[in-house]
Amino acid sequence: MQHAVGAPLPPHGPGSGHVGRPYQAQHPGHPGPPPISPPPPSPGQAQPAPPPGQGPPPSAPGQVPQPPAPGQAPPAPGHAQPPPAPGQAPGPAWSGTGPTPPAREAVGHTGHVQLPPGGPVPLPAPPAEPGTGGATLAVLLIGPAGAGKTTVAKLWAARRRVPTAHVSLDDVREWVRSGFADPQAGWNDHSEAQYRLARRTCGFAARNFLANGISCILDDAVFPDRPVVGLGGWKRHVGPGLLPVVLLPGLEIVLERNAARSGNRRLSDEEVARIHGRMAGWYGSGLPIIDNSTYDVETTARVLDDVLARSIASPPSW
């Protein structure tokens, strides 16, 4: 409906047209809009008295009203404060002004789980049963390409009766998809930087697993004559409790297993022979060495567990 310019607008009040009529009169049979609650009083404003015959709003069963903090206005009526979380002291009541306090995070409500900080891994305590038993361990399985490190590490971790994780440094290095620096193309600054980053990532993962009661076995082709890819970095990133074990079968076995590989995991025979020859430097190093030339995977995993049990009782110096 349009009104001429200068014409008086219809009055807004009871009995002066449809604008001021009750909602039920305009829409018969409709329940009507929900009632609008009055806004909370401003700080310092007197609280309105309850209607005659009506007492103050009751508190929740078993809830004790908290007194306001010094210099803080009491909470508005009808706005009960939430009970504190189990084991948490009740905080001050919110006055209704300023930013809303952050909601508390509860394990049952948000799924947030607090993780212990991962520190250097100490030496494990000797197990009370044959083998490693239920000991929480950090193991580094060393060996050339084709020695069976990853296969043995996976089986050893899966057969333990306590939670145990397996982390392969080659898998972590290959997380880099675009720009991956393959050491087979030449050891340069890029491949060395990515190797260091992968080793630090593996060490961080191992410490976090150990801090949460989960053992961890890592595998890497660590060279005895290379400080960059040597034991010092692993000890620095994991801790003095890391137990290194060398897996070193004969050259013929390594060449045969390498031939069954595919992709960038398969090396040339010359490269395999060169790596295997350098791994022979672990003899006389004091580290335990397993020659699994005649062992299947299950036997090697069982021998590894026995070797680790002896390492716990008498840790190698490295």
What oligomeric state do the depicted chains represent? single chain
The profile of the biggest β sheet is: 5 strands, parallel
SSE series: HHEHEHHEHEHHEH
Strand order of the largest sheet: 2-3-1-4-5
Shape: globular
Mean pLDDT: 75
Low-confidence stretches: 1-20, 101-110
Write the layout of secondary structure elements.
Elements: H1 23-26, H2 107-110, E1 138-142, H3 149-159, E2 164-168, H4 169-173, H5 189-211, E3 215-220, H6 231-238, E4 243-247, H7 251-259, H8 269-279, E5 289-290, H9 297-313
Parallel strand pairs: 1-3, 1-4, 2-3, 4-5
Walkthrough of the structure:
- With 318 residues, the protein is α/β, with parallel strands linked by helices.
- Helices cover 29% and strands 7% of the residues.
- It has helices at 23-26, 107-110, 149-159, 169-173, 189-211, 231-238, 251-259, 269-279, 297-313; strands at 138-142, 164-168, 215-220, 243-247, 289-290.
- Strands 2-3-1-4-5 form a 5-stranded parallel beta sheet, sandwiched between helices.
- The longest helix is centred in the middle third of the chain and has 23 residues, at 189-211.
- It is globular.
